Amino acid sequence: MDFNGLSIDQAPPISAPLRFFLTAPLFAIFAGFLIFFSDASALMSRYSLESIVVTHAITIGFFGFIMLGALTQMLPVLAGAKIPKVKFATTYSHLLLSFGALFMFLGLLQNNALFTSIAFVALGSGFMMILIPIALAIKGVSNFTATVKSMANSIAFAFLIVFMGLFLLYSYISGNMSELHATIANIHSVLAIFGFAGILIIGVSFQVLPMFYVAPKFKNFCKRRVIWLIPAGLLLWSALNIFDETYALLAKFWITLFFWAFATTVWKKLSARRRPISDVTVWYWRSASIFLTLGAFLWIFDEYFKHEYIVMVAILIGGGFIMSIMTGMLYKIVPFLVWFHLNAMGYMSIPTMNEMINKKLAALQFILFIASLIGFVFAFYMPLLLEISAVCFILSMAILEYNIISVALVYMKTKKTKPEFDMSAFK
Predict the structure, then answer these.
(1) Residue 100 buriedness (CB in 10 A; 0-12 / 13-18 / 19+)
(2) What's the burial of 139, exposed, middle or buried (CB within 10 Å: 0-12/13-18/19+)?
(3) What's the confidence (pLDDT) of residue 422?
(4) Which of 29, 160, 274, 311 suits a disulfide with 214, CB 3.0-4.6 Å?
């Protein structure tokens, strides 16, 4: 691995990101059970309450928690920016977001205005409590690299989608749906997938692929232009959807063009890496490239089918692209965190990063996950596959949770022993 350019002395406490990583698969398991017990026809509609709850269990609970956890760790390490009050911010935002999400799910499913109101306050304050310190940290960065720029763009979109989400949630509390509700909901979902998650993934890949996989570095055009061209396309598409939907398809082409290019570039970088050793994380990156290509292609042609396949698009891009990369990166980031923090405390006889994860279990988790995604797609034509796919998905996320916990236990057990090297003299 290449650690050049990392500000390892700025790393936050391991508890800051780890609490988000440990919670994320639990929300995915919850989503799996909702899918299993829901009616297939309800899940096929993006506006049904069941579909909304399942979507947000994945987007807030899985995507959101992993991205926020990764940002609290990677922003200080990659950019040397110290997040103010990081322990306080991560502890209480994690609690507020966890309870807020659960109250939101209960409030929507039970049509309970009180629960939904609690969720409105908890989610709003929880997101602000973590996003504002991250934004302040980015503002103070002196070396504004391509990865930091992507983080800045991602956080800007995060603020937008949070405010949009609160607006939509308030509509359910008040019972008054404005004429813009469906339009805002559509923009909210696209900015969350491509703006918050997509841009962050692209920016982080500039650093992660060369560091973890010894892959060739990205070209300057990708680093300097793409992270601005994609936000421009997203803002143009959003404006056209509000003011003149006739030309929105042109902006769609703009967005998908760069994400197709990214999918192709990732595949080529992995093929050209200097250490062509394959593991489950490489499988996740490659499968993510395939799912992104298929999902973006379908997103374009869904315009001609009156958005009949928009849920399938969400499965391919949200599940196949974003969830694949995030799951694969958990297998790299969490062992790295444990190894890094133990090594910094003077522990030398610790397992390597590759030894901390059970490779056979990780491979099984990958197979179950990919099988569940394929099953969800074909469930559009064979509803019987929905329950089988939900079981595969639940088992996959349960194994992921076990694998993360097992790495965390390595840290806890090792800390109970005496370090081989006394680091106190260097503090």
Answers:
(1) buried
(2) exposed
(3) 56
(4) 274
Phi, psi (degrees; rounded to nearest 5) at 82: -90, 120
pLDDT of residue 7 exceeding 60, the answer is no
Q: Which tokens go with 38?
A: 């829901």
What is the pTM for the complete model shown? 0.92
User: What is the rounded average pLDDT of the residues 304-321?
Assistant: 86
Examine the pLDDT at 2 and tell me if it is beyond 70.
Answer: no
Q: Which residue has the tokens 């315009």?
A: 303
Q: Report the alpha-carbon distance of residue 235 to residue 255 in Å, rounded.
A: 10
**Full residue range of the structural domain in which residue 308 is found:** 298-410
The encoded tokens of residue 348 equal 């030398």
Instruction: Quote the CA–CA distance of 356 and 315 in Å, as a whole number.
Output: 30
Residue 405 domain-assigned?
yes
Task: Tell me, yes or no, whether 149 lies in a domain.
Answer: no
Least trusted range by pLDDT, from 42-51, 391-400, 417-426: 417-426
Q: Cα–Cα distance between 244 and 222 in angstroms, integer?
A: 30
Written as one letter, the residue type at 370 is I
Burial status of residue 422 (CB atoms within 10 A of its CB: 0-12, 13-18, 19 or more): exposed
Contacts of residue 225, Cβ cutoff 8 Å, sequence gap at least 6:
none
pLDDT average, residue stretch 104-127? 96
pLDDT at 426 over 50: no
Tens digits of per-residue pLDDT, 138-187? Answer: 988 877 888 889 999 999 999 999 999 999 999 999 888 887 888 999 99
Tell me whether residue 394 is in a domain. yes
Q: Is 47 helix (H, G, I), strand (E, B) or coil?
A: coil
CB 319 within 8 A of CB 35: no
Domain for residue 309, yes or no? yes
Closest of 157, 168, 165 to residue 131, by C-alpha: 157
Mean predicted lDDT score pLDDT of the chain:
89
